[in-house]
Amino acid sequence: MTSRAADLLPPVRPRRAFQLSGLPVGALLAPLLLLGLWQLLCLSGVFPPQVLVPPSGVARTLEEMALSGELQRHLGDSMRRLLLGFAIGAAAGMAFGVTIALSRLAEAALSPLFLTLWQVPVIAFVPMMVMFLGIDEPFKLAVVAIAAFFPMALATFDGIRGVPKSWFEVAKVYRLSLFQLIRRILLPATVPAVLTGLRVSLTRAWVVLVAAELLAADSGLGQMMEMGRQLFQIDVVLAGVIVTGLVGFLLDRGARWVESHATRWRAA
Amino acid sequence: MVVAVLVGALLAGCSADKPDNGKVSTVTIASIAYPYQGKQVFTGLNGVVADQGWLKDQLAKKGIELVFTPVSTAVGAPVINEGFSGKRIDFASYGDFPAAIAVAGGVPLKIVAPVGQGQDVYLVVRKGLAAKSLADLKGKRIALHRGRPWELPFSKLVDSKGLKLEDFKIVNINPAATPAALESASVDAAVLLSDGLLVEQKGIARVLWSTREAPADWKMRAELFARKDFVDANPELTQLVVEAYVRAAAWSSDEANKAAVIRNAARGALPVEIVERDYANSNIPWRERFSPLYSPALRTHYHSVADYAFERGLIRSRVDADALFDDRFVTKALTDLKLEDFWARPAKDAG
After folding, report:
1. CATH number for the domain running over B24-118+221-336
2. Contacts of residue B2 in chain A, CB cutoff 8 Å?
3. Are B144 and B170 in contact, with CB atoms under 8 Å apart?
4. Into how many domains does chain A fold?
5. CATH of the domain at A100
6. pLDDT in tens, A145-169
7. Nearest 5°: CA angle at B235, between B58 and B227?
8. Strands B65-72, B26-36: parallel, antiparallel or unpaired by DSSP?
9. Which of B149, B258, B293, B339 is in the most buried spot, having the most CB atoms within 10 Å?
10. Is the CB of B105 less than 8 angstroms away from the CB of A50?
11. B159-170: per-residue pLDDT in tens?
12. CB contacts, 8 Å: B101 with chain A
């Protein structure tokens, strides 16, 4: 049981590896190499410049969009959807994970359905969600919440099931109430797994949100890219790609930072 | 890993790049297609050209394969523009505004044959909404697939009423998703082609406005566009393709084939009676409906498209409309096929 989360979720890397502040040159090498190759490919003229816009062109577009406030508007809309949807989805996922972990009955009744639905890409639910929720904010929040729900539920479930049986026995001996069991034993024991779940949920929710915005939205980074494609402004599409990637990277970094600090606190 | 991807892209780019000066092995024509009985079928002249098989045979004699690339109406023009710019397609029968977007984006195109007299664009409002005019839709959600040909007439309508696109909540969804959005009241109105009549027939929405109430050049137009560098490098092949379209136009213009043309236009897309109604609405004589002649109205239309799209900031650079027209091929085809007097010569003074 315990190994399931470890198999599915990328492990937290040790802090010393791949650290921006520690090895700035090493960390920047790959992106710089990519930029260089990108520019080189543009200069080679293999692709028409309107298809493969040079990095300098994309940088200019980013600057223009930032100056006009358009970029901030799209980014702000996307971030608001992410945070709200994520809060809902992660909280529900955690509650669900605790339920099926603590109750054999709930697990038997709900886990097959849960595992089946988990295999379906969130985007496949889009037509139904549009019918029930429309194409405004509730739809996008639901997409984010669903994307965050599954990894969160699974991580919580595995975290709790990973707690050694003997600890529960100790709790029984001490006649701990459910509340005490959660606060004194489960919470500290499951913090790492839950934090990993939060991180995976957050980055997954981000990817799915941008994809949903590509399909139906009037604003947001995904919609900005879709419009760029429709109006054949590939520089706008690439600007969106870069911002989306950077935001995803920063979300992941931020969550890892919280994760490692929380783990250290626990170890201390 | 990233390096490997880039090198891969470079190699793929090289192989996908068709040599314009070397031997051409395929001629690719892209157009909107609809799934019908498990196959993709092309409507309009594309369908006739495909069914007639003349072009396929002519090209086969030269050892060249004819490829029709179907494009679903849900994605439409952006895919065609990407194909044009990647030199993966040589011809496309598609709309005025997307073509202007491509040219503004640095992909020179030529109109090598007009394929019709324009299509009506409809503004529909969902059932239960008491809007009587565009002004009543202020602040409401309007489904409009951006970058598609029907954006321009709608934009002109908005302008003519002294309003701005920002006065509405424009929802960028494709026409395929629009009926469901109207039905669930996710959007209050939608801009559509003849599928606007379909949603009205189904009782989901009603037509509030159409280009029939507007000046004739507001209609959206589609033509047979060709990649300029392909035309420059392969004038004989372009001539063959254009002749095939002129043959198809002559066949379609024959009153005797009217029923078949309407039936084909409806395949997979719309009920026959909707197509009939849309055609009847436009008041264009059957004989002239598919006329391949370059009329002054055509020229004015593309000037208007180019200027308007630029002034509204929809395209970033001005498109030289005059550079779009290349009537050499149609003129030669009409002479070769002895069809010089088949279609009415449009008046020269207009425009």
Report:
1. 3.40.190.10
2. 30, 33-34, 37
3. yes
4. 1
5. 1.10.3720.10
6. 999 999 999 999 999 888 888 888 8
7. 100
8. parallel
9. B149
10. yes
11. 999 999 889 999
12. 231-232
